[in-house]
Amino acid sequence: MNAEDRREIEVRGDDVDQAVADGLAQLGLSRDEVEIEVLDEGSRGLLGLGAREAVVVIKPLSAAAQIKEERPEPEPEPEMVAEVVEVESEPEMETVVEVVEVEPEFESVTATAVTEATEEPKTSLEEAEAERQAAQATVETLLAKMQVTATVTTSISEPDDVTGRRINVIEIHGDDLGVLIGPRGDTLNAMQYLARLIVGHGLHQRITFVVDVEGYRQRRELALSRLAERMAGKVVKRQRPVSLEPMPPHERRIIHMTLRDSEEVYTESSGEGKYRKVKILLKE
Amino acid sequence: MKELVEYILKNLVDYPDQVVVEEIETPQETLLELTVAGSDMGRVIGKKGRVINSIRTLVQVPAAKQGKRVSVELIETGDR
Fold this sequence. Notes:
The complex is a heterodimer.
Chain A: E1 9-13, H1 16-27, E2 34-40, E3 54-60, H2 62-70, H3 78-88, E4 97-98, H4 106-111, H5 125-145, E5 151-156, E6 168-173, H6 178-181, H7 186-203, E7 209-213, H8 216-238, E8 242-246, H9 249-259, E9 265-270, E10 277-282
Parallel strand pairs in A: 6-7
Antiparallel strand pairs in A: 1-3, 2-3, 4-5, 5-6, 8-10, 9-10
Chain B: H1 2-10, E1 20-25, E2 30-35, H2 41-45, H3 50-65, E3 70-74
Parallel strand pairs in B: 2-3
Antiparallel strand pairs in B: 1-2
């Protein structure tokens, strides 16, 4: 258990191969640069009943991790992205669009994509733009059909700490949107899940984007990173490890990310499925 | 509620024209009965029922606005 372990990620997918492919894409590594541990082979089940997702843990091999660390982060080029966003939106409305009943037309979306050549890693700006439009249209339609009045804006996330990848963030603004979040974010997560499936189905590939309501996810992220800092302090003070409550993957990830540059502690996950939790330990 | 479920289903399945959503009002609640092509059943249920359960979660939003209880059932079709 050493520092590199902090970079491991847990990935789910229809089957092991898919989960691995997904994870490698996330890390931007090839299969021989990582160690793969299969937690659950998953099962197709019958009609989706009794089916389980395959779960794998992917750890970059130390050499690979080292190289990645030394390599400077890919230039984020924020100006360039901002520029493209502006070009695409109607000048007077800055990507803010009132919720209207629209049937998203996925095919036509691709045609309007940006023509500019780009060096963005992984997804080209062109693809990201097609995804953004489809995602925004889908979320707007869902809201309209849920009889929720709100405005939808989009932005592009900061490059991911590990992968350097940027993803689209679909933000919903309005009054009284607590109903859209639901208990522990259940409703928001259901909406994000279905929106991703719908967009993915339309564009014939797996699409990842974030749907947020009034900065809920950001606030949650902030709360989790504060928790991580506080618990790390406790570990140092008491000179013994602390285990956190079980959390879903993206929340565990926030803990790992918050503490990954710590000089005094490191983190690892243990347990399986929904009982998987993060442990914060002292570095020798 | 019906339109919401119809929209989701039609954009998720391979055979959108075979999607039927029937709205049945009972004194206690609104029942939404979904029928899709046999080969689309698995997709509509999802792994561990995640898709159908997400639909059930989302449909509570308009239902609450109308002060109704709503349940969503997928009707099994024989042909596969």
